[in-house]
Design a protein that fits this description.
Number of helices: 8
Number of strands: 15
Shape: globular
Largest sheet: 6 strands, mixed
Helix content: 25-40%
Distance between the termini: 32 Å
Oligomer: single chain
Structural class: alpha/beta
Radius of gyration: 17 Å
Length: 253
């Protein structure tokens, strides 16, 4: 039986990645293409790169695109690690127009939400029960919230105020690098952050994503929190896979 294919593009602060996804198993088909994010990363310049990636694969069907932004009905309301001119931009309409697609053929969603959709859809079946939070630790802290496998979009838990600070300025993976913290020092900060989150929403499971999830054995055992925390499974391809999956399901941010 032929695989069900989809296409996803993941827009980040440093790179824009895209590829064909086997939606039956949640894996890329062949290689992905990565092009550096334009500087400045204004909407038109980014849309040109997205078109270049889609054209490279000759993809003609619906597709999903992630943005590091709060997305409501296809419109960006914030801009993290991309040009501030995205705020107020109808990203779904922009990409559809640039790609020559009908309205509705391009689904745009928040990047952490896309990663979460991938993990919930293709990770362990247990990931779909109850209140589940995906936290991506990178330049900042992204979050995706699910109730019984259903996405509740645009949570911004990385910006919780913890001890008078925006949480991601204390506990993002980039802070570990910038301050040259040991795993013990950094995990202490992550513990403090997760405890604050636990007191607000009492999750059943936390999935830790972002680049540091590759080294989960070095820091997950050091956390002192009440919720079970597991490492994300899809790693760097989660955004592409989740975007393609969202387009198939018709999820809009």
């Amino acid at each position: 039986m032929a695989a069900t294919l989809g296409f996803g593009v993941d827009i980040g602060g440093s790179g824009i990645k895209g590829g064909v996804v086997d939606l039956d198993v949640g894996k890329l088909v062949g290689d992905r293409v990565r092009i550096p994010t334009p500087d400045p990363s204004k909407p038109d310049a980014v849309a040109d790169v997205v078109k270049k990636i889609v054209d490279e694969f000759g993809w003609t069907g619906p597709l999903g695109v992630t943005l590091p932004a709060v997305i409501k009905h296809g419109v960006a309301h914030t801009a993290a690690n991309i040009d501030k001119s995205w705020v107020g931009t109808d990203a779904a309409a922009l990409f559809a127009e640039r790609l020559g697609r009908a309205q509705g053929e391009v689904v745009v969603l928040n990047d952490a939400d896309a990663a979460g959709v991938a993990e919930i859809s293709y990770g362990w079946p247990d990931d779909q029960k109850g209140v589940v939070v995906l936290l991506t630790f990178g330049t900042g802290i992204g979050s995706a919230l699910f109730l019984d496998g259903k996405l509740i979009p645009n949570t911004e838990f990385g910006h919780l105020e913890v001890d008078g600070h925006d949480a991601e300025t204390r506990a993002a993976a980039s802070v570990k690098e910038d301050k040259d913290l040991t795993w013990e020092e950094w995990s202490h900060r992550v513990t403090r952050y997760i405890r604050s989150l636990e007191d607000l929403i009492w999750p059943d499971l936390i999935i830790a994503g972002g680049g540091v999830s590759k080294k989960a054995d070095k820091w997950l055992p050091l956390l002192n929190v009440r919720t079970r925390v597991v490492a994300a499974e899809l790693r760097n391809d989660a955004g592409i896979v989740g975007a393609a999956r969202a387009a198939k399901l018709g999820h809009h941010g």
